[in-house]
Amino acid sequence: MTNRTLVMEFSLMEFSNTRELRVLHTFLFLLIYLETLVGNLLIITVVTLNQALHTPMYFFLKNLSFLDACFISTTVPNFILNSLSHRSIISLPGCVLQVLLMIHFAGSELFILTAMSYDRYVAICHPLRYEVIMNWAVCVQMAAASWLMGGIFGALYTAETFSLSFCGSRHLPHFFCHVPSLLKISCSQTHIIINVSLVLGLLFGIFCLSCIGFSYICIFNTVLRMPVSQGWSKAFSTCLPHLIVVSTFFLTGATAYLKPVPDYPHILDFVASVFYCVVPPSLNPIIYSLRNKEIKEALCKILWRVYQYRSHVKKSNSILR
C-alpha cells in the first residue's frame, strides 16, 4: 500500500541565484506589498469613518479591499522571507494552508465583484427602486454568501488536491503552492475528482463573468440613452474602475490557472504568477482612489481633521508649559 504523504515539504521556484538580483526583487516585492496593504487599509478606514460613504457600493468596496489585503498576504510575505533566507521551502501544512486561503480569497473576490456589478446595474438601470432592492439586509447577505462560497471552494479544492499522492518530485515551478503545479508533480494516476472540481470552478467563473457582462450591457444601454452628458460622466466614473478591476482579475487568473504547467519553468512563468498574485490587489486601491472623487474628498476631510487635532494638541501643550 502506497504512503500518500511521503513528501512533507516542497521546494519553490527561485527568481535568481544571484544575490544582488535576489535582494533587488525582494525589495521591489516588499514595496509593492506595503503599498497594497496601506492602500487597501486606507480605503477601509476612509469608508468606515465617513458616514457619506456608508452605501452599498462602498460596503462592497470595503469587502474587496479587505480580500485584496488578505489575498496578497497569503503568498508574498512567505516569498520575501524565503528570498532573504535563500531557502525556498514550504512545509506540507503550510502549502495546504496557502492553497486553502488563496482559493478562499480569490473565490470570495469573484463573488464580490459580481455583487458590485449588480449594485451598479440597479443604481443606473433602476434608480427609483435602488434603496428598496439594495437594502442593508440584501448587501450583508450577498457579502456573507461571497465569503461562504469562497470558503466552500477553498475547502473543496484543498481537500481534493491533497488527497492525491506526492511521492515523486517535490519541486514546484512557482513561488507559491499552485494547484496545477501540485497536480503536475502528483504521482496519482487519476485526477478525476480534482478535474470535476476544476470544471465546476470554471463554470462558476463563466457564470459570474456572464452576470457581470449582462449587467454592463444593460448599464451601457441605459447610459447611452441619457440626454445629459453629466449623467454619462457620473455613470462611467463609477463603472470604469470596476470594469478595469474585473478585467485584470479574470485575465491574470485565467493566465495563471489555464496555462499549461511546463516541465522546465521559464522566467515568463514566474512573471505570470507574479501578475496573478500581486497585480490585482496592488492596482485596486490605486484605481479606486485616483478615479473616485468621493474617496478623495473623504480622505482630504480625514487628513484635515487629523491636522486640526494635532494643531490643537500642540497649542494645548504650549499653554500648559
Helices and strands in order:
Elements: E1 9-11, H1 19-49, H2 56-85, E2 89-91, H3 92-125, H4 130-133, H5 136-161, H6 179-185, H7 192-224, H8 229-258, H9 267-291, H10 293-320
Antiparallel strand pairs: 1-2
Helix pairs in contact: 1-2, 1-9, 1-10, 2-3, 2-9, 3-5, 3-7, 3-8, 5-7, 7-8, 8-9
Write up this protein:
By secondary structure, the chain is mainly alpha-helical. It has one domain (9-320): Rhopdopsin 7-helix transmembrane proteins (Up-down Bundle). The chain has 10 helices and 2 strands; from the N terminus they run E-H-H-E-H-H-H-H-H-H-H-H. The longest helix has 34 residues, at 92-125. The chain has helices spanning 19-49, 56-85, 92-125, 130-133, 136-161, 179-185, 192-224, 229-258, 267-291, 293-320, and strands at 9-11, 89-91. It is globular and about 65 Å long.
| CATH fold field value | Rhopdopsin 7-helix transmembrane proteins
**What's the number of helices?**
10
- Count of discrete structural domains: 1
Instruction: Supply the CATH class.
Output: Mainly Alpha
Helix content: over 70%
Q: What low-confidence regions span 5 or more consecutive residues with pLDDT below 50?
A: 1-5
Biggest sheet strand line-up: 1-2
Largest sheet: 2 strands, antiparallel
Instruction: Kindly provide the radius of gyration, computed on alpha-carbon positions and rounded to a whole number of angstroms.
Output: 23 Å
- Beta-strand percentage range: under 5%
Order of helices and strands: EHHEHHHHHHHH
Could you tell me how far the N terminus lies from the C terminus, measured between alpha carbons in angstroms? 81 Å
* SS-based class: mainly alpha
Number of strands: 2
Backbone shape: globular
Average pLDDT over all residues: 80
Q: In the CATH classification, which architecture applies?
A: Up-down Bundle
Domain G-protein coupled receptors family 1 profile: 39-288
Membrane topology: Multi-pass membrane protein
Family: Belongs to the G-protein coupled receptor 1 family.
Protein name: Olfactory receptor
